[in-house]
Design goal:
The chain is 27% helix and 33% strand. It is an alpha+beta fold and 381 residues long. It has a 6-stranded antiparallel barrel. Strands 8-9-7-10-11 form a 5-stranded antiparallel β-sheet, with helices on both faces. A 5-stranded antiparallel β-sheet has the order 14-13-12-15-16, with no helix packed on it. Helix 4 crosses helix 6 and helix 8 packs across helix 9. The termini are far apart.
Length: 381
């Protein structure tokens, strides 16, 4: 007789309705609550492939398909005579017709458990903005774990996305308003809960505390990110939105989605400020990421931005086609493509306005970015 042990409850409503279990050699099982046997609960139990179980746990596969769309499905009955933590003994069902009345309806999809309490509590207790991220890489199939390289890549991509979202939001403000904002560390986040319960989660908090009204500068970035994830199941709509907001933010968004596709993972997040009554949430599955990545990868210069620099020209090397300018925000260096304007005749120490294209190369292993400034036009000031 096969014996299994309850591992976790996947769906709870007035008691466990769908459970996950293991046998002594690590086999994966799912049990669905059916009509009781007198005073005892009973479950229809089916052995399942771990990859398909993961697809169900992250909402990509409905329960009926998980239980029935298998090459050699085997079904059992399990009666709970004691606590659910005790071993469950399985009785084989020999005729498939015997399970028809026990199967769930089509369309039952497992959604992520609510995490509002955690996010709101952390935001209130820390008096700052909190971001809660959940991912489902294949290594999280059996337990709450994630590979170091995946975690580091995720954090790098998320922090980069927030930095460029914040920059994009500030550019929409009047110049006077931008100058009044201290943006030194406004885009930065710290890991405060390395692994919360559920699918693998990390909780991040804004490095800077919120003001007396409960507002945090980082909210500007997350509002931009939320808008980018709207209509995520309509790739053409997302494509048009990204084209409208092309630049470093769009490039960082594409890199994050490509990272999720490469690591076979979906992502869900919610965030809150201390004064929120409910968090704001968005999600994307691996299946939703793939067509968007394919569409965005066909857009040329997606992550490039047009930049105008004004300052004093300190260096102009005609042979090497490089230059350096001192601006109010520091020294900027760049180059000129062969098809671009010439540097001949420019006077060192004179004031110029340079129109440039800024490109960014992102290094996945470190999260560092290399900026490349390409001059397209210059004029004296």
């Amino acid at each position: 007789m096969t014996t299994i042990r309850h591992l976790r409850t996947l769906y709870f409503y007035d008691g466990p309705q769908v459970i996950e279990a293991r046998d002594a050699i690590g086999g994966h099982y799912v049990g669905v609550l059916i009509e009781p046997d007198g005073a005892h609960d009973r479950f229809l139990v089916c052995g399942v492939d771990p990859d398909r179980l993961r697809e169900f746990r992250i909402g990509h596969l409905d329960l009926l398909a998980l239980l029935t769309e298998q090459d050699e499905a085997r079904y059992f009955l399990a009666t709970v005579t004691g606590a659910l933590s005790e071993p469950l003994h399985l009785t084989a069902i020999n005729h498939e017709a015997d399970i028809q009345g026990y199967l769930p309806d089509e369309g039952f999809v497992l959604h992520d458990p609510p995490i509002e309490d955690l996010t709101l509590r952390e935001a209130h207790d820390r008096n700052t903005l909190v971001l809660n991220i959940a991912v489902d890489p294949p290594e999280a199939n059996s337990e709450n774990r994630i590979r170091v390289s995946t975690l580091v890549g995720l954090l790098n991509n998320v922090q980069t996305l927030l930095r460029h979202a914040y920059g994009a939001a500030l550019r929409d403000l009047p110049a006077a308003a931008r100058r009044s904002i201290d943006r030194t560390d406004a885009h930065l986040m710290d890991v405060v809960v390395p692994a919360a319960s559920g699918s693998f989660r990390i909780v991040l908090a804004a490095s800077r505390a919120s003001d007396l009204l409960g507002h945090n500068e980082l909210a500007r970035a997350l509002e931009r990110v939320d808008a980018m994830f709207d209509d995520i199941d309509q790739p053409e709509v997302v494509l048009e939105r990204v084209r409208t907001h092309r630049g470093h933010f769009a490039g960082a968004f594409l890199r994050l989605l490509r990272f999720l596709v490469d690591h076979r993972s979906g992502m869900r997040y919610d965030w809150a400020q201390p004064g929120f009554s409910a968090p704001r949430s968005r999600s994307i599955s691996q299946a939703q990421s793939l067509p968007i990545v394919e569409l965005l990868s066909g857009v040329s210069n997606l992550g490039s931005e047009s930049i105008t620099l004004t300052g004093i020209l300190e260096e102009a090397d005609v042979t090497r086609r490089t230059w350096r300018m001192a601006t109010d925000e520091g020294k900027v260096t760049g180059g000129v493509q062969e098809s671009g304007p010439t540097l001949e005749g420019l006077r060192l120490g004179a004031a110029y306005e340079f129109s440039c294209i800024e490109e960014i190369e992102f290094f996945d292993g470190t999260g560092q970015e290399a900026r490349k400034m390409i001059l397209t036009e210059h004029r004296p000031r």
